[in-house]
Specification:
single chain, about 375 residues, alpha/beta, CBS-domain, three-stranded mixed beta sheet, about 55% helix, about 15% strand, hydrolase
Amino acid sequence: MTAPVARRRSDSWTLFTLGGAPVVVAPTSLLLGLLIAGSWYPVVSSALAGHGAITVLGTVAATVLGVGVSVLMHELAHGAAGTLLGRRPVRYELYLWGGRTSFGPSSRWRPWKDVITSLAGPAANLTLWAVGHGLLDRIESAPVFVAAWALTWVNLALAVFNALPGLPLDGGHALAALVEQLTGRRVLGQRLAAVGGLIVVGGVAWRWILAPLLAGRQPDTFSLFLAVMIAGPIATTSWRVLGLGRGTRAAARLDLRTLTRPVAVVPADTPLTAAREQLDAGAGLVLVAEGSRILGTLDAPALAELERSGLPDAAAVAVSQVCTVLPAAAVTTRATGQPAADALARARTVSRWLVLVEGGRVAGAVPTGAR
């Protein structure tokens, strides 16, 4: 059973939908794009001496746009690999400096598939680098050459950096999955990858902050900003996985199965009155399904709001006409520990319920506390 695409959230812009999965971009990417453009302008202007400002600006804009396309290709490679291995993507998120591909549940997923899916992104950037490297000698236009040269090496940097064995980088996920596949110990793999993440943070701090200071130079503002943007999420994720943050012990003891409420699954043409009977009989949530696809949900507060609006005839209204779309972030296959706590936190931002799926079946729904 799969969840439909999440609705557009106010903190992101939906560019388009691919295979049922929305491709969204964070507004902060625009800010970062402007910062990158500002830092590259003097370099491009120097490389294109003799060309006008419009040509320089166009080259910078094309390069920044090319970086965004490179990140998109990276995430789409994750999605394609997951699809081929039996797990469809439900959401692509782009941040210009990186991205995230979210997948739906799968009952036959194995850790080795995570290794392949994780490394597919860096492999895509490595392929773009190889193609660009092979084309550079054939480019005669100076502006095109500058943009292509920059994008070629940006893709190499994306491939190498994302392949580093530290969470939440692709290489970290691949390392954690590989250890789990070989040893059967998921926590061990996560912890090893988290240690790798802290090592990566140390490397970033050394490259952009400590090394310039030791050389008697002041780190420039853009380098500091980039170091924080890159190292911050890595440090936060690794710190949490290693259990060094507040609340991690409580999260480790969490079991969503003890918090679930019964779920009633009904066909799309079910009358609204029948859904009311299911809720009155004790169901916390009604899932509206069409075959194996979830169309949406209906709970007591939503039904009460509908009734207050003055429905003409509840018996003549089908649940599919009034149900609320279930966001992908409101579905999880992880019932225990930190992954379950993370799923509950994500669901709280988009839904009143977190639907727990185990063994390909809906096990229940957990109230998130959202209104």
